[in-house]
Amino acid sequence: MIRLDGVHVRHKARSGGIFSRDAVHALTDATLKVERGEIVGLVGESGCGKSTLARVLTGLQKPTEGEVLFHGRDLWKMSGAERRDDFGSAVGVVFQDPATALNPRLTVRQILRDPLDVHRRGTREAREARVEELLDLVGLPGHTLAAQPGQLSGGQRQRVAIARALALEPELIVADEPTT
């Protein structure tokens, strides 16, 4: 389903004099293949590149070199519209920190409806039914829909983030420390 071949991510960093630049190697020669139905866990110490790998897998970080192939197509050779339509709706992401990943100004209902609205999934009624189904799926009570993220506990926010990742019934779910 998704494959990384020889992926490197380097960031430019200032060091020393005013014009000196060094490279920070965030990810070095990552190669990974994930098949449909497969679960892959990645364990490593802080700073080893787990979150960078997650960003590359989800198309949020373009690698400095190497390929990211989704169903055999190079993600970064797709047009922006293809990446959004073909890839974006097929990938769900659970970010590391739900406190910063959820828009604090939106209600839980709006947060869960947003991917359904953006990708025009179903009728208004079907979207609303899906939002209620998602809330039930992650074990949150119905009144949570009217709450904003700041009114929820950390665990409840994480469940909202998981529900949002599941909203479009994605082929691939990337979870960056989902149980912290």
How is this structure best described in words?
The chain has 180 residues and is an alpha+beta fold. It folds into two domains: 2-77, no CATH class; 98-175, no CATH class. 32% of the residues lie in helices and 24% in strands. The protein has six helices and six strands. It has helices at residues 50-57, 80-87, 98-101, 108-118, 124-137, 154-166; strands at residues 2-14, 21-34, 65-70, 73-74, 91-94, 172-175. The strands form two sheets. Strands 2-1-3-4 form a four-stranded antiparallel beta sheet. Strands 5-6 form a two-stranded parallel ribbon. The two termini are 27 Å apart. The model has no long low-confidence stretch (mean pLDDT 91).
Provide the descriptors you would attach to this structure in a database record.
2 domains, two-stranded parallel ribbon, 180 residues, alpha+beta, globular, single chain, 6 helices, four-stranded antiparallel beta sheet
Structural topology:
Blueprint: E1 2-14, E2 21-34, H1 50-57, E3 65-70, E4 73-74, H2 80-87, E5 91-94, H3 98-101, H4 108-118, H5 124-137, H6 154-166, E6 172-175
Parallel strand pairs: 5-6
Antiparallel strand pairs: 1-2, 1-3, 3-4
Short summary:
By secondary structure, this protein is α+β, with helices and mostly antiparallel strands. It is built from six helices and six strands.
Helices and strands, in N-to-C order?
EEHEEHEHHHHE
Helix content: 25-40%
Major sheet size, sense and barrel closure? 4 strands, antiparallel
Provide the low-confidence segments as ranges: none
Number of strands: 6
Shape: globular
Nearest-integer average pLDDT:
91
Instruction: Give the total of domains.
Output: 2
Evaluate the radius of gyration. Answer: 18 Å
Strand content: 15-25%
The spatial strand order of the largest sheet comes to 2-1-3-4
Structural class: alpha+beta
Distance between the termini: 27 Å
